[in-house]
Design goal:
- The protein is built from 4 helices and 4 strands, in the order αβββααβα.
- It is globular and about 45 Å long.
- It has one domain.
- A hairpin with a 2-residue loop joins strand 1 and strand 2.
């Protein structure tokens, strides 16, 4: 799975935590929580545009299997712990569920590394 595919799954599954698929209509069937951007030089290289303090509300009937599956760096016990913690909390800041291997880059890093084309600045 490349970073674009992973970003799409993560942002969609984060949305599904609050609004499980069975509660959605056609209007929000493709809704996501955070937007993502692609690198101008590589359309398969993507980054989520996130606020790590954003509070995600947990629907009691949400399923988390697909979300935790996109973190291959987590072993099965860590995936189970993450799923359990999300359900127990009822709401949580997005940054709380990020594995240690995830890097959050600031806007200056993105500018310095060519993520934005000149006309976007």
């Amino acid at each position: 799975m490349n970073s674009l595919e992973r970003a799409k799954v993560i942002t969609r599954e984060l949305y599904n935590i609050t609004f499980p698929v069975f509660t959605q209509t056609e209007v929000n069937a493709d809704s996501t929580l955070f937007p993502y951007i692609t690198h101008p030089d590589d359309a398969n290289e993507a980054a989520l545009v996130v606020d790590s303090t954003y509070i995600i509300k947990v629907h009691p009937s949400c399923t988390l299997e697909k979300l935790v599956s996109v973190f291959p760096e987590l072993d099965p016990d860590e995936r189970f712990q993450l799923s359990s913690a999300i359900h127990q909390l009822g709401m949580f800041p997005f940054g709380l569920i990020l594995p240690d291997t995830v890097t959050i880059r600031d806007e200056q890093y993105m500018i310095d590394n060519g993520w934005f084309e000149e006309e976007e600045l």
